[in-house]
Amino acid sequence: MCHLLTVCVTRGRHHNAWFPHLEPMRHIQRLSALVLFVTLFLIFFYSTLHLETAYSLRTGPEDLLEVPSIQQVPILQEVPILQEVPILQVVQVYDRDRTAQSSKQERFPTPTPAVLNVSVSDGLRQAIPPNGAYWNRLLYSALKGLVKGENPIGRDSDWSLCRQMNQEHLQTNVHDFTTYPVLFQDFVQGMNCRSPPVLLNQPNKCMSGEEKDDNQTFLLFTIKSTPGNFEQRQAVRETWGREGVHQSGLRVHTVFLLGSSPPEDPDLNSLLSFEAGHFGDLLQWDFHESLLNLTLKMNMFLQWTVRYCPAASFVFSGDDDVFVNTPTLLSYLQSLELPKASELYAGQVISKASPLRDPKNKYYIPLSFYDGPYPAYAGGGGFIISGALLQRLYSASRVIPFFPIDDVYAGMCFKALGVSPEANEAFQTFDINEQDRENLCVNKKLILIHRRSARQMKKLWKGIHNPLLTC
Ligand SMILES: *[C@@H]1O[C@H](CO)[C@@H](O)[C@H](O)[C@H]1NC(C)=O
Ligand SMILES: *[C@@H]1O[C@H](CO)[C@@H](O)[C@H](O)[C@H]1NC(C)=O
Ligand SMILES: *[C@@H]1O[C@H](CO)[C@@H](O)[C@H](O)[C@H]1NC(C)=O
């Protein structure tokens, strides 16, 4: 109370000292002048701040060329705040790939040949019946186009225009389109949208150091995450997703795949920029995170890997809430012999599955959209692909229309390559018996378990690495 009073008195005194002789009217004029002056000052102050931000953006590209590692980058130094600008430049280089050659590009092999070399196996035609359902028709028309040597359906169409596919077209082609759930309608309208802007990139992720004899990437973990899952990502980094050289000199790299959060959600962009600068393992594209956008996410990861990590021997695709027993996984991969090692698509295989027709189910597929069984596929919680298959897989994905369920879609693309999923009992994407969950010996033998919280992940990792553990 006393303090408040002092402040008031002091303020009063100031007023008196500045304008002792003023009449009320002039007092107000002077006051406005003062306000104007302060405003101008503030505008000037903020514009210098803005200049600084703009300046740091321009210095961005150099920063981007260095892969920040935990040891090299002290936490408080150099937080690249807005990575958009340098990254967009990288993307432009990428887009120009097909026409121009720049000196930078020599370091990155071009991912997509000018003419797609896709040969779709008969297996796909046998697995998916040609009928009147919309997706089936799209597939067969794409396959027909392929035979004629046509470029795949307007796949490179501008991101800002691709959703303009007119409602009328869909309503004539899909008789009950308007009865589809809203999100499903949204998916169908965006099926040709395949080039979202890149927000965060890690172009140097898989480039080995200066020494030429540095081992190339043996395993690349690509982990589907969402912007807000900070804790889960950190647990993965501290446990199974640790980057570096593992047993027998095998090099492991990790990237997290992110979309963007809806504008209604808290803005996490500066936190993500910090995280990306600090750990160097975030990839982010500007499309909304949602179940039905996971196929787009998969397509983007394929595109990224083909471009920036083409020499990886194996690639893992999975969720950020699975537990992976990395040592066991590495031993398994190392034990594979050719040709298996170069044609691997392994995980928990779901065969003889069919679309769910209950509109309330999150995996609902309307009959007029897709009619037929699903080709066998590996559960999307986590599976392994040979790096040697990536380019062909990506090419196939450019011909096969997007399907709303990402792991089913992966199965379709592999089917097109004539590669069948290999069932591996050690991948448990639907979790294990409840009584075995705490059993470290059971866990130690497995490769993948879904799902585990950040805390469970750490506990399990510590447990299976305990030298006193005897099984
Ligand atoms: C196309 O791919 C097939 C198998 O993937 C390969 O044998 C063939 O040489 C490739 N053709 C061209 C022109 O690259
Ligand atoms: C590369 O791998 C070999 C064996 O696979 C290993 O002995 C060596 O230490 C590794 N080198 C580096 C730099 O990681
Ligand atoms: C997928 O992302 C796009 C771009 O952000 C968005 O417009 C669309 O609504 C999303 N689709 C679904 C099914 O959420």
Automatic annotation (TrEMBL):
Alphabetical GO biological process terms: poly-N-acetyllactosamine biosynthetic process; protein O-linked glycosylation
Membrane topology: Single-pass type II membrane protein
Enzyme class: transferase
Pathway: Protein modification; protein glycosylation
Family the UniProt entry places it in: Belongs to the glycosyltransferase 31 family.
Entry EC no(s): 2.4.1.-
Gene3D superfamilies in alphabetical order: 3.90.550.50
Reactions the enzyme catalyzes: a beta-D-galactosyl-(1->4)-N-acetyl-beta-D-glucosaminyl derivative + UDP-N-acetyl-alpha-D-glucosamine = an N-acetyl-beta-D-glucosaminyl-(1->3)-beta-D-galactosyl-(1->4)-N-acetyl-beta-D-glucosaminyl derivative + UDP + H(+)
One of the record's GO molecular function terms: protein N-acetylglucosaminyltransferase activity
Predominant cellular place of this UniProt entry's protein: Golgi
Localization annotation: Golgi apparatus membrane
Listed name of the protein: Hexosyltransferase
Cofactor needs: Mn(2+)
Complex and partners: Interacts with B3GNT8; this interaction greatly increases B3GNT2 catalytic activity, independently of B3GNT8 enzymatic activity.
Parts of the chain that traverse the membrane: 31-49
GO cellular component: a single term: Golgi membrane
Keywords recorded for this protein, A-Z: Glycoprotein, Glycosyltransferase, Golgi apparatus, Manganese, Membrane, Signal-anchor, Transferase, Transmembrane, Transmembrane helix
Coiled-coil zones: none
Origin species: Cyclopterus lumpus (Lumpsucker)
